[in-house]
Each structure stands twice: as structure tokens, then as C-alpha cells.
Amino acid sequence: MTKSVVILGAGAWGSALATLAKINGHKVHIWSRRDSQTLAEVLKDVDVILSAVSMKGVRNVVSQLQCLPLSPEIIFVTATKGLDPQTTCTPSQIWQEAFPNHPVVVLSGPNLSQEIQQELPAATVVASNVVSAAEVVQLVFSSNRFRVYTNADPLGVELGGTLKNVMAIAAGVCDGLQLGTNAKAALLTRGLTEMVRIGVHWGAKQETFYGLSGLGDLLATGNSPLSRNYQVGYQLACGKTLTEILTHLQGTAEGINTTKVLMLRSKQQNISMPITEQVYRLLQAEVTPRQALLELMLRDIKPEYND
Ligand SMILES: NC(=O)C1=CN([C@@H]2O[C@H](COP(=O)(O)OP(=O)(O)OC[C@H]3O[C@@H](n4cnc5c(N)ncnc54)[C@H](OP(=O)(O)O)[C@@H]3O)[C@@H](O)[C@H]2O)C=CC1
Ligand SMILES: O=C(CO)COP(=O)(O)O
Fold first, then answer.
1. Is beta strand 122-127 parallel, antiparallel or unpaired with respect to 104-108?
2. Domains of the chain from N-terminus onward
3. What is the C-alpha radius of gyration for the chain, rounded to an integer number of angstroms?
4. Residues lower than pLDDT 70 in the chain
5. Contact (CB, 8 A) for 45 and 68
6. What does the pLDDT look like over 131-152, one tens digit per residue?
7. What separation in Å is there between the alpha carbon of 67 and the centre of ligand 2?
């Protein structure tokens, strides 16, 4: 059945998702804060509201929507991969708190938007506590070039896509320093261990991190120059400063803010996150890429798994 979909955020990801819904014949409107139409106008008779704004815009957009009369039938979908610096909440937690009577669905996976715009095949996950809502969103986006799986662990799916951005920065450093394939495999594997450790502590399911939104997205962004987070790490390793990199970077690298939030929360909760800590220190210019590598290699020797 044809759905009316409004996509909030006309950036790289919002535009790619709009293309995917349009090819399935849905009525799609992309709204951005520069739109000539107001949110109230574009949200008339809407079925699905998908937010693809970057993390820094989420609270702003949520508050604007809270002022509008919205039917409880409307499904919210969040495709943002970040953590709120003030509260450390995930975007879906912010949406759900603001709209407790609406179903909220997380959409996340290995989805480099440029490849999707080139019509290359990809897969993703839509996760919600309300299975029927996830199934509606699955139908809106599924096609012969975009395979959509449902999942019942929205927190795990969301954290997979968010936490891997920190590891994508580290992977860019690894490649920028030309450390080789063994080092890259070690980094991504131990990076995944770190993601699982904090994610499970926060209430996500371990197995979710081994799916598309965790391992899948870690492999995509940790191995692709198309990833902005990877680019940040790569260029730091090539000697550029963060300010220089951000001046020329197209779009948002959420991993920079996520690293800060993650450091704060992991320290408060006493969770060991050695790779995240070195990425944090590198972004703060407290260590060079080579020093960060050495710090990781010279940590106390230990069993691979502690339990
Ligand atoms: N690009 C990709 O491949 C993918 C990205 N993502 C995630 O999607 C999110 C968006 O990424 P992407 O589209 O690439 O980023 P872009 O930088 O291309 O776009 C960001 C969007 O957010 C909007 N925005 C930023 N701040 C505000 C605000 N205060 N109020 C309203 N709108 C705001 C921007 O509006 P304006 O243009 O007016 O500044 C723009 O539409 C990120 O969390 C990213 O991690 C997820 C999967 C794939
Ligand atoms: O999350 C993404 C692909 O799944 C996009 O990665 P970047 O934000 O690093 O470009």
C-alpha cells in the first residue's frame, strides 16, 4: 500500500533514503530547515516520519514536532547515528521519550549513501519494540537493490551503527599509517569487542552486534574511503589537523562527538574502552597517531576473553 513518507533532513542520507522510498511508489517529501514549507504543512496526512538529521539537530527537530498535533498512528523512524552530548541518550530514546504513544523504529546498517545513490545493492535493518511498525518500514524501503531485515533489538541496532563510527576513525588511522592487513583485522575485531562490551552493559543484545548494523557497518565504514569517519582518521594519520580536515569534509562525521560521549560514559561506568580512549586522545591532539598505536600495543597482556 502506498504510504506518505516525510523525511526530515536533506543531507546525504535523507536524500538516499528518499530515493529508495520513491522507487517503491511511495509519496515522499524531504523537509529541511531551509524548506519553504512549514513542518505543519508537510506533515498533513503523513504515515511515516523519518529523521535523517545529524545528531546536533535531533533535539531541535523533536521540539518542533512536539508543538504539532500528530495522529498516534504515525510511525517515527530514526536513521541518525550518534549520541546526545547532554544526556548521552541515543536518538531513538529521545524520539520515544518525546512521543511515548508512537511506535519508533531504528534504521541502521552498512549503508554508504554514495553507493546507494549509485544504485549499488545494499542491506539494512529496521528495529523496533513494535514489530508491526518495523514491518511497515521494511515494506516502504525493500526493493531489489535494498534488502531490509527486521529486528526486535532497537537499542542494539542503533548502538551498532553509532559505536562503529569511533572504530571507523581508528580504521582510517590504521590505513593512513599503512599498518597492513593484520593490524586492520586486529583493530576491527578488538573494536567490535569494545562495542559489544559497552553495548551489552547498556542493555543491548550481544548477537545484534554480530549482524548488519554492528559488524556489517564496521566492515563497510572501516574499509571505505567513502566514510567520513574513516576519512577523519586517515587524514589525521597523514598529518592534517582536525580543524583542517573538518574545513573540507563533505557532511557530518558523527564519530567525533560520539567518541567524547562514549569516553565520558565509559569512565563513569568503569568500562574498559582502550581503542576509544586512544581515538579520543588523538582527536584532542594529546597523542600522535604513532603514539596511540604504541599505547595500544603495549597494554598489559591478558586473555582474549575475560569471562
Ligand atoms: N551519509 C551516509 O552514508 C549515512 C549517514 N547516516 C547518518 O545519518 C545522519 C545524517 O547524515 P548525512 O545525511 O550524511 O549528513 P549531512 O551532513 O549530509 O546532513 C545532515 C542533515 O542534518 C540537518 N541538520 C543539522 N543540524 C540541524 C538542525 N539543528 N536542525 C535541523 N536540521 C539539522 C542538515 O540540515 P542543513 O542541510 O540545513 O544543514 C542536513 O539536512 C548522521 O547521523 C549519519 O551518521 C547513516 C547512514 C548512512
Ligand atoms: O554510517 C555510514 C554508512 O553505514 C556512513 O558513514 P560515515 O558517516 O562515516 O560517512
1. antiparallel
2. 4-152 (3.40.50.720), 155-297 (1.10.1040.10)
3. 19
4. 307
5. no
6. 999 999 999 999 999 999 999 9
7. 31
Q: Which residue has the cell 597494554?
A: 299
Pocket lining for ligand 2, CB < 6 angstroms:
81, 110-112, 165, 168, 217, 220-221, 227-229, 254
DSSP codes, 6-60: EEE--SHHHHHHHHHHHHTT-EEEEE-TT-SS-HHHHTTT-SEEEE---HHHHHH
Q: pLDDT tens digit string along 159-209?
A: 999 999 999 999 999 999 999 999 999 999 999 999 999 999 999 999 999
| pTM (two decimals) | 0.98
What is the residue whose three cell numbers read 527486521?
A: 150
CB-count exposure of residue 81 (10 Å: 0-12, 13-18, 19+)? buried
Does ligand 1 have an atom closer than 6 angstroms to the CB of 56?
yes
Q: Helices in 67-123 by DSSP H: which ranges?
A: 91-98, 113-117
- CB 11 less than 6 A from any atom of ligand 1: yes
ipTM for the predicted complex: 0.98
